[in-house]
């Protein structure tokens, strides 16, 4: 079975632009979470979606938004890009969103560089 | 105080050594804990869950100390292939489910 897939793998944008990142979860998984990982730090939680509804939100500005589709795939949108948005964006899928002993499986990530 | 803290290292150990990492957390309501491994420029991969009774998987042992609010990871008989960054994850409760990662501990195993 395919794991979590993300596209694109790499992206270069300029300040002020908008970006859309995509994620397809493992087949059968209904929950998708998004993380931002800057160099030297652990992943920072951005959003979690389950059954197309937002179930959790981290401490990120409103420039960041996401949605989940009926097939459980997801998009992360970032508007008005800043240099500080340069990071590895990781998507993780899990079966549900119970929060207890919920194992997440990560995709390979999208490397975003903002110039 | 950060929610989840780890010593970034690097821990530089010879093959065959035993090495231990700790991860402290501030939210006493946290209910689930994990260790992930991340290789350079790769995604994190689950290493093991951490249960209250502790758990062991081959050369790896994870333990939870709720009283002192830390989890630990012990690696015995280190291999060159164990070189990676080890991330602890704490899932909070008490209102919202937000998994919090530590910054990771870098391990370098040398010949």
Describe what this molecule looks like in 3D.
The complex is a heterodimer of chains A (115) and B (111). In chain A, strands 2, 4, 5, 6, 9, 10 and 11 form a seven-stranded mixed sheet that branches. In chain A, strands 1-3-8-7 form a four-stranded antiparallel sheet, with no helix packed on it. Chain A has 115 residues and is mostly beta strands. In chain A, 0% of the residues lie in helices and 50% in strands. Chain A has no helices and eleven strands. Chain B has 111 residues and is mostly beta strands. Chain B has strands at residues 4-6, 11-14, 19-25, 32-38, 45-50, 55-57, 60-65, 70-75, 84-91, 99-101, 105-110. In chain B, the strands form two sheets. In chain B, strands 2, 4, 5, 9, 10 and 11 form a six-stranded mixed sheet that branches. Chains A and B meet through strand 5 and strand 10 of A and strand 5 and strand 10 of B.
Features:
A: mainly beta; 7-stranded mixed β-sheet; 4-stranded antiparallel β-sheet; 0% helix; 50% strand; globular; B: 111 residues; mainly beta; 5-stranded antiparallel β-sheet
Proportion of beta-strand residues of chain A: over 45%
* SS class of chain A: mainly beta
Overall 3D form of chain A: globular
The mean pLDDT of chain B is 91
* Strand content bin of chain B: over 45%
Q: Please report the number of helical segments of chain A.
A: 0
Q: Assign an overall shape of chain B.
A: globular
Q: Which two protein chains have the largest interface (Cβ within 8 Å of the partner's Cβ), and how many residues from each?
A: A-B, 25 and 24 residues
Count of DSSP H/I helices of chain B: 0
Spatial separation of the terminal alpha carbons of chain B = 37 Å
| Class based on secondary structure composition and strand pairing of chain B | mainly beta
Low-confidence runs of chain A (pLDDT<50, min 5 residues)? none
């Amino acid at each position: 079975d395919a794991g979590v897939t993300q596209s694109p793998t790499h992206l270069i944008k300029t300040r002020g632009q908008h970006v859309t990142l995509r994620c397809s979860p493992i087949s059968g998984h209904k929950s998708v979470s998004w993380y931002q990982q800057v160099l030297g730090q652990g992943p920072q939680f951005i959003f979690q979606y389950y059954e197309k509804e937002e179930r959790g939100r981290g401490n990120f500005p409103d420039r960041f938004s996401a949605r989940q589709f009926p097939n459980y795939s997801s998009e992360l949108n970032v508007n008005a890009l800043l240099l500080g948005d340069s990071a590895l964006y990781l998507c993780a899928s899990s079966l549900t969103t119970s929060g207890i002993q919920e194992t997440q499986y990560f995709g390979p990530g999208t490397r975003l560089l903002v110039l | 105080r950060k929610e989840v803290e780890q010593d970034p290292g690097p821990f530089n150990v010879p093959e065959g050594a035993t090495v231990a990492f700790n991860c402290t957390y501030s939210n006493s309501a946290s209910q689930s804990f994990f260790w992930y491994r991340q290789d350079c420029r790769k995604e994190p991969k689950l290493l093991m869950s951490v249960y209250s009774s502790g758990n062991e998987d081959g050369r790896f042992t994870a333990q939870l100390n709720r009283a002192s609010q830390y989890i630990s990871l012990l690696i015995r008989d280190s291999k060159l292939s164990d070189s990676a960054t080890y991330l602890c994850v704490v899932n909070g409760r008490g209102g919202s489910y937000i998994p919090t990662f530590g910054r990771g501990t870098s391990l370098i195993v040398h010949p």
